[in-house]
Amino acid sequence: MVEIGSIIRAQVERIEPYGLFLRCGKETVVVLVPEVSWVDNRELHERVKVGDHFDVQVIRYNYEKKQVVGSIRRLHPEENPYRRLSRLEPGTIVRGRVSAVSDEDATIELPHGTRGQIPKHRRKTDLRVGDQVEVTIAALDVDQPSLIFDLVGRIVESGDGSARPVAAASPSGGNP
Asked: Residue 97, class by beta-carbon neighbours within 10 Å (0-12 exposed, 13-18 middle, 19+ buried)?
């Protein structure tokens, strides 16, 4: 068994929709899709081939399946787009697009492959998929990554093609 936290060199044996299976000596190494790359969202078979070699950071060991669970992306923190967000001043307004809405939260996609959620209790207004929004960062964990937003307002397109922000209404109906 390899030590958690160590870096190993492994060869791709199998590609599945949910991740990669690699071999390092006698060890089976699994790298799930979110741990392959920070922002490359192409299908795995489009960016990885059986036989490719990767350095993999060991993040845990699955004792039931006797598998090493690893990460390729964690070896490349310089590619982490969430680190750029961590350098913003508190209260900086950023623009994004609503990509999903559920009873619990709305998912907001920002440029450069980052995404986060606005929990229902922070929304203050109804959002729809495709809405352009202005948000501020409420909480950010760059290594997980986890990103929670506060909604500043929606962007409304006018008839002349220009856009203007509209402040989100507070739950009581007033301004925030």
From this structure: middle
